[in-house]
Amino acid sequence: MKQEKIGWKELVAINGLRGEQTVATVRQTSAVLAETLVDHAFGSVFAQTSLSRRERELVTLGILGAIGGAEPQLRIHLDAALRVGAHPDELVALAEHMSVYAGYPRALNLLREVREALGAAGAPATLATRHVMLDDHQTRVFDSAGAKPALVLVHALGLDHRMWRDVIPVLTERFRVIAYDLRGHGAAAGAPVAQGLVNYAGDLVALLDRLEIDSAHVVGLSLGGSIAQELALGRPERLRTLTVVASTAWSFDAFTERARAAERDGMAAQVIPSLTRWFRPEDLAQGGWAVRFARDAVERAFVADWVAGWHALATITTGDRLGQIRVPTHVIAGERDASTPPQLMKRMLEIPGATYSEIAGAPHMVSLTHPAPLAKAVLRGLAA
């Protein structure tokens, strides 16, 4: 009775009412299989906490996809995976990973089922990207294309273009949205290291040239916002507007120390101090995709790329030149941002005509924790 009770609890948690229907259907033909499904599969195996529900569903999908011919079961477990917190990007990555060990036919079959499951669930699609060659390195670019005004999203230090994935769908309704990996980040990891903000800003100009865009609305978060400021000062004709999100215009001693810490201790040691600056305690406790993505990105980064980013911020001088910015500017802060708090962000109102908004409850990585409010704040700023 104990295993049956536990089994039903796990079954409903993972599959909801569909799980009950599955067991009822099996019981019509085989009471033995119905009972073992509840008592053994879910009551004994799935109930063990050594693997989380999300992890078990990902493992199950990998096995079902590899053996082939199990499409009905794949669909059940894809729905279950989404129900227990698997992210669409993780499901696509699973199919890609399968191509290495089970071959392309199995991987493509799983990818088809993933696509259908995401569509049925109304889950956001993964970002379709392509590689673009810039002056001295290749990067990965998302480009929604079309004839709408161009809007470029510039990401934070240590992450990549995917930090914007849940902001992009709102913005594409009005803009041609472009998001790319900075030099030394994501698909551009290991590129010749950046030599300051001017180098990063030059890459953005090269990207605009490559995409044949004369000028664009530029939105930057953290390091991305500092890069956008440098571009607004050096090449103002390439910006229609400037949106600075959770960024700095001033150097602090901590920036140099963070570079030294990585050189001294390696990247794994940077995970805890970085994530506790970027997220709220509740975000870290829940351990959702945003936290998993950020943790993995930091841990996998090349030390040289990480150091280059912090050195660029350590030598920032835009704070002394804010009064020279003539591009229409909107400043956005997160109420609970420990890295660039509201009182720091308000200093950017030295930019002539700049407007300001604050997102309630938001930490530093606001695009990951509050994508909808951030998208709305960006649009409000552009409409002002």
**Would you tell me the overall average pLDDT?**
96
Report the structural category.
alpha/beta
Task: Write down the CATH class of the largest domain.
Answer: Alpha Beta
Task: List the uncertain runs.
Answer: none
CATH architecture of the largest domain: 3-Layer(aba) Sandwich
- List the helices and strands in order: HHHHHHHEEEHEHEHEHHHHHEHEHH
Approximate helicity band: 40-55%
Give the oligomeric state of the chains in this entry, treating copies of one chain as homo and distinct chains as hetero: single chain
Within CATH, the superfamily of the largest domain carries the name Alpha/Beta hydrolase fold, catalytic domain
> DSSP strand (E) fraction?
5-15%
> What is the alpha-carbon Rg in Å?
23 Å
Structurally, the number of domains stands at 2
* Strand runs, count: 8
Principal-axis shape: elongated
What is the count of helical runs? 18
> Could you give a short account of the major beta sheet?
8 strands, mixed
Distance between the termini: 64 Å
The largest beta-sheet arranges its strands as 1-2-4-3-5-6-7-8
Look up the CATH topology of the largest domain: Rossmann fold
